[in-house]
Amino acid sequence: MLLTELDHIAIAVEDLDQAVEFYRTAFGAEVAHREVVESDGVEEALIKVADSYIQLTAATRPDSPIAKFLAKRGPGLHHVGYRVDNCAEALEALKAAGATPIDQTPRPGSRNTTVAFIHPKGVFGTLIELVEE
User: Fold this and answer.
1) How far from the centroid of its chain's Cα atoms is residue 19's Cα?
2) Class of CATH domain 3-132
3) Biggest alpha carbon distance in the chain?
4) Is residue 7 within 8 Å of 81, Cβ to Cβ?
5) In this structure, what are the phi and psi dihedrals at residue 36, rounded to the nearest 5 degrees?
6) Closest CA relative to residue 132, chosen from 79, 95, 82, 84
7) Are 87 and 115 within 8 A, CB to CB?
8) Which tens digits make up the pLDDT trace of 53-111?
9) Phi and psi dihedrals of 21, rounded to 5?
10) Secondary structure class of 92 (helix, strand, coil)
11) Nearest residue to 123 via CA among 86, 75, 79, 68
12) Separation between Cα atoms, residue 54 and residue 79, nearest integer Å
């Protein structure tokens, strides 16, 4: 089994501070980690739930994937992050199974992780992020 656990559920939001405040007020949730990922043009706030996260993510520039998603679909579920022991191995296994990678090789992600994205086509319509801690 390549998947070790659910790393995060990513929710695209227009206003990150407003979303963080809602989760704090509604659920008593506190941000465990907040980071700007310049290479992706996003800012994220991670709310820890057991050993996984809710990743609230907002665009920092108009050409980012989150900005494009929000313009096309509005706020909502963006992707699911699956934790794996070896991102390169998991990426190759998905390619072999017929999945279409967005990232041809793993790359640096937030929290000092290694990540790779898989296109929703071929994996039942859900954008998947492989996350190696």
Assistant:
1) 16
2) alpha beta
3) 44
4) yes
5) -95, 130
6) 84
7) yes
8) 999 999 999 999 999 999 999 999 999 999 999 999 999 999 999 999 999 999 999 99
9) -65, -40
10) helix
11) 79
12) 11
